[in-house]
C-alpha cells in the first residue's frame, strides 16, 4: 500500500526536486528547498529528513559561478569512464575468454 502511495507522489516530488536543482540563484535554490520541506516534511518525514541532512551537499553547486553549473549538473565521471568499457565488452561478447575481457577492461580504464 505504501509503495503505491509513494509511486503516485513520486512525480510531484521529482518535479519539486528538479525545481531546486535547476534554479538560477542560490537564494532561489534555498527557497525551493524550504518549499519542499514545507510541502512534504509533515507527510513524509523520513524523505524530508534524508534530504535535509544532505542539504549542504545538494546545494554545493550554488557556490560556483553560474557558467559552471551546467557541467556540474551533467557530468558523471564514473558513468562516463565505464561507458567505454561497457560499449567495448558488449561489442566483443563471446570473442575470447574472461581473462582477455578483463585485460581489455583494465587497459581501457587506464587510458
What does this structure look like?
This protein has 111 residues and is mainly α. It has two domains: 2-74, no CATH class; 77-110, no CATH class. It has helices at residues 2-21, 26-40, 45-53, 55-58, 69-74, 77-91, 98-110. The relative contact order is 0.07. The mean pLDDT is 77.
Report the order of strands and helices.
Answer: HHHHHHH
| Overall pLDDT level | 77
Ends apart, CA distance between termini: 49 Å
Number of continuous helical runs: 7
* Beta content: under 5%
Biggest sheet features: none
CA-atom Rg in angstroms: 20 Å
According to DSSP, the number of beta strands is 0
DSSP helix fraction: over 70%
Q: Notable features of this structure?
A:
single chain; 111 residues; mainly alpha
Please give a quick description of this structure.
The protein is mostly helical and 111 residues long.
Topology readout:
Blueprint: H1 2-21, H2 26-40, H3 45-53, H4 55-58, H5 69-74, H6 77-91, H7 98-110
Helix pairs in contact: 1-2, 6-7
